[in-house]
Amino acid sequence: MTNARALFYSLFLSVAVIAGSGAVVGTAQAAGQEDLKRDSDNAQATLVRTNPAAAAIARSARAVLIFPNIVKAGLIFGGSYGEGVLEQGGRVEGYYNSVTASWGLQAGAQSYGYVVFLMSKKAEDYIHQSHGWEIGVGPTVVIVDEGLARNLSSSTLKDDAYAFIFDQQGLMAGVSIEGTKISQIHPGQKQSGR
């Protein structure tokens, strides 16, 4: 098999995997705003209940971005997508999507969620004023893993934002949101049911 043909098959399979995950994403997009708000509240409540560091950070956060279900799929080339909410003072301030593209040694699909606690006015202003926030550009976002979570307390919080990546069993290892683009979903962009 020539290198060009092997590349073509890899690209074809990657597109097929991502398209297959699109059915799952399409189902998520068809859910209403109320469903997304409920799922986001449940995800955040579970995280805060099961993780003392998240609970401490949540008490000090100015705003919270919650993505309860991100679907990631790929074969060499991949991507992930999910929708979430920005909450301030217990109110929904906006609906957002999370998109990541990736390449490299990868195969399969998984789902996960993540919460970003916005701690500073800089982070809060940035999410409102930017036309998309790429994690790793702009305010400092610290990804909290199990080791870091043990050493965090409300007195050690110094960064602009803290992100927790999780699945139904707890914090996930090996998933990164670096390079993820978070953009507000405007009413005209919403899918059916929204």
Concise overview:
36% of the residues lie in helices and 38% in strands.
Could you explain how this protein is built, in words?
- The chain has one domain (3-189).
- Strands 1, 2, 3, 4, 5, 6 and 7 form a seven-stranded mixed beta sheet that branches.
- Helix 2 (33-50) packs across helix 3.
- It is α+β, with helices and mostly antiparallel strands and 194 residues long.
- Residues 1-30, 168-173 and 190-194 have low confidence and may be disordered.
- The chain contains five helices and seven strands.
- The protein starts with a helix and ends in a 10-residue tail after the last strand.
- It has helices spanning 3-30, 33-50, 52-60, 121-129, 146-151; strands at residues 63-88, 91-118, 133-134, 141-144, 161-167, 170-171, 181-184.
- Helix content is 36%, strand content 38%.
- Strand 1 (63-88) and strand 2 (91-118) form a beta hairpin.
Supply database-style keywords.
about 190 residues; about 35% helix; alpha+beta; 7 strands; 5 helices
Ordered list of secondary-structure elements with their pairings:
Layout: H1 3-30, H2 33-50, H3 52-60, E1 63-88, E2 91-118, H4 121-129, E3 133-134, E4 141-144, H5 146-151, E5 161-167, E6 170-171, E7 181-184
Parallel strand pairs: 4-5
Antiparallel strand pairs: 1-2, 2-5, 2-7, 3-7, 5-6
